[in-house]
Design goal:
heterodimer, A: alpha+beta, Enolase-like, domain 1, Cytochrome-c3 Hydrogenase, chain B, 3-stranded antiparallel β-sheet, 10 strands, about 45% helix, B: about 150 residues, Beta Polymerase, domain 2, 5-stranded mixed β-sheet
Amino acid sequence: MKKTIQKPVLAVGPFHPLQEEMEYFQLTVDGEIVTDIDVRISYNHRGIEGISETLQFDQVPYLVSRVCGICSASHPLAYINAVEEIAGITAPERAQYIRVIINELERVHSHLLWVGLGGHFIGYDTVFMWAWKYREPVLDLLEEITGNRNNYGNVRVGGCREDIPDEIIPKILKELDVVEKKTEMLTKAVLDDPVLHARLKGVGILSKEDAVKYAVTGPTARGSDVAIDVRADDPYAAYGDLDWKVISQPEGDVFAKAVVRLLETLESIKMVKEAVKKLPKGPIAIEVKEIPPGEGCGHAEAPRGETFHYVRSDGGNRPVRHKIRAPSYVNVPSFRASCIGEHIADVTLTLAAVDPCYSCTERLAVVDSHHNLVHDYNTLLQMSRDKTARIRKEIGAPELKMEDF
Amino acid sequence: MDNQELNNRLQQIKDKLIDIEQTTDKRIYLLCESQNSYEVCRFLFEDLGLRFAIATGIDSDDCFEVLYHFSNDQSGHVVTVKAFIRDRENPSIESISPFLPGAEWIEREIHDILGIEIKNHPNMRRLILHDDWPEGVYPMRKKSPLRNEGTVI
């Protein structure tokens, strides 16, 4: 008699009450080990590329800032880069600096958000609380400059909408000094923590070869020794004038990605401080009458990686085609390379290390067909945390206390 | 690979192209027929080592276009392969996913929204359209009934 073996399947997703994006991961497991992964996306297709063709060039930035709440400065900037390329115009210098300041503040708050959530997933809730606490003043600064904590809507074709008033510059520098000091402390705490080393090193490795094949970008690529960064490779805005360096790590594991993000946060803070000090005087926008026929490719480095926009104009007042590629679109498929062969307890973290969107991890369910067991999100989160606790006990590390930060 | 070397190397594939256009300093467009797109993309990715950024499918008036955007990160150039699919009735193009797994999703997406058949794709299932979506209705085609009636998709 032929015996059919049913493979246990782990379903991750698709709905998350807090995120606007949904994803569904189906993991085939053999005991604790993941043997295959299948991804389904587009549960919430908003048709932004289609809507963009119905809007005027000036209106599109406000639409694309809503592609993602966190990357709401980089999407409009990539679009503007493409349109300014078609029109052959350059925004005034002051506007270029303001663009850098907004985009780097965005990166600081996005990376701190990730560090906090990463800590939460492995049971380091102190890290979660503190990282989010340090992030808050950055959002306040963004609100003070643009009027919004997210969806800044500050760039437009030919310049910027809101200026940075001179009065708030001392405040920006003061707040950033505090954030910088705290982030340095957090970075040191992570780099020195033996538990984190044991828990994160060697987990979810994405090799350099796979990083190239899957065409990943951002910290996901830079954590795998692929030192690409649009800000340095094809400088836009004022990035060419500033002194900073691209951070990369060779290991490709979750720890490497965490280190890249933490060090990058410090680089970004440095960059904002330099840009604020150097901020040139002058107008913040030029008048743009019409966009000629043509096509342009604009890209910008979002916190998660390269955001790519392709715009085609026929000389009218609307784009005839507008293609948007968010970084997660190329980073998420790399899970096939980094998750297979891993433990279930590590998958939550490996998925989170790419910083896709956390929808994937909120509603996890393990279905084991042999034993009729169902593990929900909380059980899986607990498995991940138990592993951290086990490692901590094994190496005899002390409990992490609030005073440590 | 710097600017000069990139321009020299691109000449090697010239017989497969209709034309090379340079719109700005750092934007190069390689125009080709859809039959040659596989070979041109393979050359850019494997021989020149460019990074694949994304592909764009476009419904032009007299043909379909598939644009493969590659990036040369050493010099900041974006090299776009613009492949023309002249057959509007049965549009098809060769898949580049066999050597470039990063293109798997976008090829499935182009198939979903424009109805371009991707030949030899390793995993041709729907990516962005729902399972219940009717066969043969492609939302990003210009003549799609959905676009003209203003239906919210």
